[in-house]
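Query structure, 350 tokens:
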């Protein structure tokens, strides 16, 4: 009896809450004007237009990252031989499966993307360009072995090219162009194995994650030229190549051990030792990453002088710094960092 009463009471409460919600929504103040209803056909058209813009912007962003990241990775491979590297030809492949289902019609219309992998971008001066590959070429076979045009075709084609390059340093690619088939023997260049990936966030930020680099779309909107973008990518690549993350982790573990020893004698420092030790050399690591980034971007053909306004402009967008030096700080102050970069860039002038 009590159980049934409880269930009835619960049902009554649910209905009461629902009725209250309806009453509140109905009683909310609304606009004073009568609003026109949008034409459904126009809504569909605008949705398609926005989708095409999204696909085009993402492709342009991916091309910019690839165009800057590839030559930088080649420089890193020359100067950090102990870091993992691989042979590459300098193309970005795509197919319909790399796009969201809602974007595939736009990708097909804008780029001619289909089920078969095709060339989305060719790096200027790369082995692929030298061999004669062009954007839009549809890849049919690698070293005579057909490439299946099903979901994930671009990734499988990339692995097939990598396997061929690992064996002989070159690959024979069969492509379709304008209804005709062509064969290209493509050489390779060694690049550091540091993929540069695009993130959709609009925050102005970038990360080095040990074996890869991630750049927010917001950073691509913020940089004012490709030299600034090259510096951002090279800076994060330097963190990876110089293994700064490993050093920070080691320092953190040492500091945490210190926290543990102090706890044994009754002094409790809630991870203060670990955090302090991790930050102890972080500013120096940032300066070192800036130093190598400027050197590497210059060697890759970018102009360090055109990247010098990045930190001052970014700092001007942020809140004013607090008075005094914080106990734990991971990045150098913007004025000191900007002055450091200017001094290094001046030394790199031809």
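Result returned for the query:
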């Amino acid at each position: 009896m009590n159980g049934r009463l409880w269930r009835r009471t619960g049902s009554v409460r649910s209905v009461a809450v629902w009725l209250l919600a309806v009453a509140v929504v109905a009683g909310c103040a609304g606009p004073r004007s009568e609003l026109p209803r949008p034409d459904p056909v126009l809504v569909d058209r605008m949705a398609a237009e926005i989708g095409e813009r999204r696909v085009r912007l993402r492709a342009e962003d991916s091309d910019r990252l690839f165009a800057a990241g590839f030559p930088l990775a080649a420089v890193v491979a020359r100067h950090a031989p102990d870091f993992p590297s691989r042979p590459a030809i300098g193309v970005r492949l795509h197919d319909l499966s790399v796009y969201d289902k809602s974007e595939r019609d736009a990708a097909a219309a804008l780029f001619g993307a289909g089920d078969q992998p095709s060339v989305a971008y060719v790096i200027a001066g790369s082995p692929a360009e030298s061999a004669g590959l062009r954007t839009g070429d549809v890849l049919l076979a690698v070293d005579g072995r057909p490439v299946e045009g099903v979901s994930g075709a671009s990734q499988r084609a990339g692995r097939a090219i990598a396997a061929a390059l690992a064996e002989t340093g070159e690959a024979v690619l069969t492509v379709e162009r304008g209804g005709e088939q062509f064969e290209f023997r493509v050489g390779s260049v060694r690049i550091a194995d540091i993929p540069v990936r695009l993130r959709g966030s609009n925050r102005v930020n970038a990360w080095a994650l040990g074996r890869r680099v991630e750049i927010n779309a917001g950073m691509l909107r913020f940089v004012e030229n490709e030299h600034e973008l090259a510096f951002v990518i090279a800076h994060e690549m330097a963190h990876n190549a110089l293994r700064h993350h490993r050093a920070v982790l080691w320092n953190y573990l040492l500091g945490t051990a210190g926290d543990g020893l102090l706890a044994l004698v009754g002094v409790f420092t809630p991870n203060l030792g670990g955090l302090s030790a991790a930050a102890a050399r972080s500013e120096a690591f940032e300066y070192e990453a800036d130093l190598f980034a400027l050197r590497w971007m210059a060697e890759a053909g970018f102009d360090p002088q055109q990247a010098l306004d990045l930190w001052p402009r970014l700092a001007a967008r942020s809140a004013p710094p607090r008075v005094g030096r914080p106990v734990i700080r991971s990045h150098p102050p913007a004025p000191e960092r900007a002055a450091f970069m200017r001094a290094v860039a001046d030394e790199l002038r031809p």
